[in-house]
Amino acid sequence: MAGETEAVEALKKLVEGENNLYLGKTTDETILREFLNLTDFNIDKAFERIKLWFRLKAQNNQFYASKRDPNVHDIILKKEVHMMLPDRDQLGRRVYLFKLGNLVYGAHEPYEMFQVDDIWLTLALQEEETQKNGLVFLMDMDKFSWKFLRYFTPHIIRCSTAKAESIPSKHIQYHIIKAGFWINTIITLVFPFLSQATKEQVFFHKSNESLHAHITPSILPPEYGGTKPPLVPAQLVKDYLDPSTDRLNELLSYGYTEKPSE
Fold first, then answer.
1. What is the DSSP string of 178-225?
2. To the nearest whole percent, how much of the chain has pLDDT over 90?
3. Model confidence over 145-196: pLDDT tens digits?
4. CA nearest neighbour of 114 among 147, 149, 161
């Protein structure tokens, strides 16, 4: 469509006029379209969201990956905490699974775990279908240790929730299962940092049936009452991440070359 092409060119000029913002040697149009889809092709809003996203990255760079680091990220991937399900749900959304019970206390810094999220989500957000339909975060808290409470500092919560709130996706839902006593902790510690719109997209589930009201069991593994075979995390990495490592590293290199002023 001519209108979309014109919008891309207009946004490109704005980005190229922004001091120290690098989105590729020739300005990566896939990034521009990602933010244009986010804002229904409102050029000014897309530009503001681009600046917001990359300013947060520059100001909290530890919490963002700048490349896929085999010595850090690939080791964490083997812990089977972060996984993108192979199939989209009934609404065409990507489903990103956190198995928080697989975390090993003290093995990795919290910010390294957030960087692994970037490894998966950066690629998913390049998909036009994901841009239009959105993301689902499925957080399995079974066997999650109370030891991790020490990581719930105001700084970590503030950085992580700001990052979550600014993810360039129109539609994001959060589904938390097997939370048990963690429900009150999450609400008390995390909810004050979330917008009302985000709070309304957080759902707690005590049963698989409750989860299935939002995510069809036809794309879920058996442990969540689904009809798909059990997940093979190493295969998910091999199929989804490994073929796109070069492109991923290119995308992760984008951002402000100097830290912008507050």
1. S-TTHHHHHHHHTGGGS-HHHHTTEEEESSHHHHHTTS-GGGS-GGGT
2. 75
3. 777 777 778 888 888 899 999 999 989 999 999 877 677 777 787 888 889 9
4. 161
- Residue type, position 176, single letter: I
Nearest to 253 by CA among 58, 23, 34: 23
pLDDT tens across 74-104, in order?
A: 999 999 999 999 999 999 999 999 998 888 7
**Cα–Cα distances in Å, from 200 out to 100, 135, 147, 167, 203?**
22, 15, 28, 16, 8
Question: Closest by alpha carbon to 131, among 70, 83, 172?
Answer: 172
> Please, are residues 131 and 37 in contact by the beta-carbon 8 Å criterion?
yes
Nearest to 248 by CA among 95, 130, 125: 125
For residue 122, give the H/E element and its range: helix 110-124
CA 147 to chain centroid, in Å, comes to: 24
Amino acid at 77: L
* Spatial distance between the Cα atoms of 49 and 53, rounded to a whole number of angstroms: 6
Contact 22, 28 (CB under 8 A): no
Closest CA to 93 of 33, 38, 172: 172
Q: Give the tokens for residue 77.
A: 């991937």
What is the pLDDT of the chain when averaged over all its residues? 91
Q: Indicate if the pLDDT at residue 262 is higher than 70.
A: no
Beta strand residue intervals within the chain, DSSP E: 21-22, 82-84, 94-99, 135-140, 172-177, 202-205, 255-256
Element of type H or E holding 55: helix 43-59
Q: Are 170 and 207 in contact (CB under 8 A)?
A: no
The first and second tokens of residue 154, run together, are 């105001």
